[in-house]
Amino acid sequence: MSDILKINYKKFVLNNGLEVVLYKDNSLPLTAVNLWYKVGSANEAPGKTGFAHLFEHMMFQGSRNVPKEKHFQYIQEAGGSLNGSTSLDRTNYYETVPSDSLELALWLESDRMGFLLPSLTEEKLQNQKDVVMNERRQRCDNQPYGLAWELIFKNVFPENHPYHSPTIGWMEDIEKFNLDDVKQFFKTYYSPNNCSLVVAGNIEYSSAEKSVRKYFEEINSSETIPNVAIPEFEIKLNSEFVHYDNVQLPRIYLVWKSDKLYGIDDASLDMTADILGGSKNSRLNKRLHFDLDLVQDVSCFQYSANREGLFVIVATAKPGVSLDSIKAEIFNILEKFKSAGPEQQEILKSKNSNNSTFIYSLQKIDGLADQINGYNCTLEEPNSFIYDLERYTLVNEETIKFVSQNYLSKQFFELRIVPKNENK
Amino acid sequence: MKINREIKPSANGEISFTLPELDNFKLSSGLNVTLIKKDNLPIIHLNLLLNAGSKFDPENKKGLAYLTSLVIDEGAAGLSSLEIDDEFETLGTIFRASTDSDLIYFSMLSLTDNFRKSVDLLAKIITKPDFNHSDFERERNKLLTKITQLRDDAGSIASLLFENLIYAPSFYAHPVIGKYDDVNSISRDELLNFYSNYFCPSDSHLIVVGSISKRDLLNELESNFSCWKNIGKTKASQLQIAETSKKHLFICNKEDAPQSELRIGHLTNSRSHPDYFGKSILNTILGGQFSSRLNHNLREEKGFTYGVNSSFDYNKESGSFGIATAVKTENTVDALNEILIEMNRIKNDVTDEEVDFAKSYLIKRFPSLFQTNNQLSNNVMVLVSHNLPSDYFDRYLEMIEQCDTKTVLEMADKYLYPENIVTVIVGNKNEILKSLDRIEWEQVTELDFEGNVIGSL
Predict the structure, then answer these.
(1) What is the ipTM of this complex?
(2) Given CB atoms, is A319 within the 8 Å cutoff of chain B?
(3) What is the pLDDT of residue B15?
């Protein structure tokens, strides 16, 4: 299996600091262009939450040689697909085009990397602020349990921590942004030396390299990219937060501070989460749903980002069941698991599922390009598929027992989202 | 060397793309099979389509098909629900049951090495389900709770109300997930009946895409599915849909909602009609992709919404045209008016540039629809579900190419009826009514979450 995961690639760095990775796969006449700018909501200043994401929207509003809305239109006309996304730690932009249109994608990406500012207008900014505020309404405010994630981040991470606020931002901050904010953000972070570009698919290395150099080499870099300060912190007290929402059933979230992405315990925590709540016969689902019928659903996951990680258990109560009884049962299960550890069969099951998922993820060139870029940005090695898989192969009974005892015995944050009519 | 950035680069090089070959055959049990051999990865995707969707739900038992699909993998050939799931997980195989109004389908993605064991498990589920009492009770309760939870989500409510209104009184009107009182009254015997009436090989189709030879596949399938001998029930279609009436607005109140969920549209003809291609171009221009008129107007000009889209959606025996969006409450009526303006405008005014763009979009993206095993399988599913000719994909580009601006205007005239639309809004009723033009909107009815009429507004 590791043969398929051995990705051949070519990597080079332009004089302006732009990292470039080329990966050739000629099975279909498609090429993926994928850029990661190493800036996300973690880089936002206080009172400016949501800005990295709003800025991502502005990147689709045209640049010096590309009129408003034409970025989308040109790519679509060529038969391509495209988008962008913002997370805590990075912002990515991507196009997948028929391979004859590689230069089109490079031209568009380089024009906005180098020449975004001349086309900025107040009108465009106002428009995208309205769009983003509607995105927030649609994804968070008008969604059942839609505020859970931001309530967790706000309460778990201290105010001076870069993960304290949600990536989409607080409404009152989004409303306040002005053109100077946009210009300053662009000058600070949207520089070739803060970016990694992957071109993957039906390419020839020499001509693809030539095209990349042609469009990106002349773009200037900014001097320094400011660092983000990460304050040390622990969850010091078991604390509880209750939020009343337009929902039918109460839901409980238990959140522990865990390990960051590719941290030494990340894979063991991931597998622990899978054994506890990742499948039908996982510990939590079997006990809470099959044996006791206390929950409508229960899940468990290790969320790991570049700077921190969280271990989360989520359960929705069956009608008439109290969250207290569910919480008590969750802790019974955890205590038993911490002392006895996992069974061999549980570990095997989790490893096999993980192996297959790796293979299945190789099917689409856009996903592959993004994965390669993630490896390049986070691990500084584009071909980290085998490394990544081996992290999981090395997990065993002892490491799982260790992380469950070490992390899940600490203080935690508890969020309850409860139907409005139970607000007495 | 400085480059001239003012010039948009033109396409450069050749695109060569060959459609995958379909191999169709029948098993001794009567089960139809389509195989696409795809060897780039050691994986196999399988999709078993059963003619057993929610349109076959009996009166007062709405939700029976869906419930059957939920219970069927909860125990088979003596294996318990948890044992079955453990086996799939240990094999690294992803197994999923889905239901829509026409079909129940079971999809499976496995490594080639584990295909044999995975098929063996799938065959047990399909041919030897246990339908244990306790599993049945548990899944039915879970479904009842799921139906209760539906009302949390304004977007889902809007979509269900919309389908209910345009398809009434036909078997496409009720939600696949079912109705609370109906599901509550379903017995295990009714489930067993549904299984024996609708789970039969001769009326089913298996699509396999992946790294496996026909001979190996045949061996696996014959040894596992030859015991499946269910004859089933003859199904007669009785599609009855009310004639479209005058334009009608339905509001479902969601207090304090910061946005309104809008669904606007009407019926259309079936997928197999040759006008499909012209309609696709029309819809591409109107609201079928990001650079559409609707998205330009409502998002990029007005900032009313995060996004809006339109689509022609097709069932086996009918279809619908619908526009969907979520807009800030205070912009609800303005957004609705703009949507109507766009529906009317496109009936008189379509430019050659727009048609060229839409054709280019549909033609050039074609190879990207054949990347993953799952995509290939879905494409075959479209052929099977809608009885399309076997050369459908071979002729697709030619059929799109043939359309011009005149065709698109004809399609707009023939298939968009802004005067007869059904409109559903789930949102803050009082705020919306404040700005609603009552000359434009004579018929306004308030519905509850389940579609019951509360009264005229």
Answers:
(1) 0.95
(2) yes
(3) 86
